[in-house]
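note to self: dont lose this again. the chain is below, predicted strucutre after it. 417 aa total, dont forget to put it in the shared folder this time
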Amino acid sequence: MQTNLADFIKGTPAGNEADAILRTCVHCGFCTATCPTFQLLGDELDGPRGRIYLIKQMLEGQPVSERTQLHLDRCLSCRACETTCPSGVNYHRLLEIGREVVEQRVPRPFVVRATRFLLCEALPRRWIFRPAVAVGRLLRPLLPAALADKVPVLAGGAARPWPRPGGHRRRMIALAGCVQPVLTPNTNAATARVLDRLGIELLEAPAANCCGALRYHLHAQEKALDDMRQVIDAWWPEVENGRVEGFVMTASGCGEHVREYGNLLKGDPRYAEKAARIAAITRDASEVLAAEQDQLLALLRQTDAGAGQRVAFHSPCTLQHAQKIRGVVEALLTAAGFQLSPVADPHLCCGSAGTYSISQPVLAGQLRDNKLAAMGAGSPAILVTANIGCQTHLQSGSKTPVRHWIELIDERLNGAA
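---
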């Protein structure tokens, strides 16, 4: 694709990056076949190729309108198009550049700005989010259906206990996070118990809260970078002293973002090297277990791993498209004796996509219902996933329990609560 960028962005780092990305696109349109919003709306401008044209026109100096903003806002950033693209177009990065320009050119209505501000300030802070969820649950029966649907319904009770510390030479750190410890506190605890059986001690650094993904995708980049620096500051002493071998991500959305730390902070002289190092030794929980597969299988053979409970797995976009981790969780669940129920169109997004279910509730609801229909086709007893956002979004429309897959492995190894 030939380009002629306007003076306002030509020669800038963002302009040079966007220009290089645009030139890799060959207009083939393969991306539209796997784009969830194009499938729902059938509008070229609500598919990756159409959005690329909109961004190209904008960067070449053509007018930017609320219509441009709408089509870019509708993108889930699921990156299914990147998995499909034969030319390797770095679409998600181009979208970030385009959205930043739109934010500067097209003012949002007050209500939208206020909502985004509240999301930026409340979600990353547990001391705000926890009581807000508690109040929301109390008032849920009195709320209109559209609002009640946004109140998380997952149990937020006490997690099962962590293993005793200090029992192993190998040590790793899990991100405590912001939303997950409030809504599903057992996720990290279950991971700790599984890793304990594999000879790995799992820790949390209390000062490491939000990974920065929430604010970054709401265009509060400076605040997001501060969140990232806070996480690095909390983790770095353990890395510097060689006390841990790496970091375990139990939310694939956080995992995707932490693995981008090196790129996102490459211009920060104080943090660039630290960010790159942390990104390099970050692993999804499924990767950690797969690396210990022989020992894990030996442990599973000592348990009742052949119960054959039927489960349907939803692979989050941040796991399969962003981190390129495919088939690993499925293999672990199969090895643990679960029967995997087939799921049609497993590449499609469930509609959670960070705060997308709040900003685009109609589209998010349609995608959720489609995903639940696909997952429920085989009549599974449990639905499982690998990301807290997907888990809460799917549970909001499902009577079947939606859980993190690591909890099922934990129960096979250590027994149910």
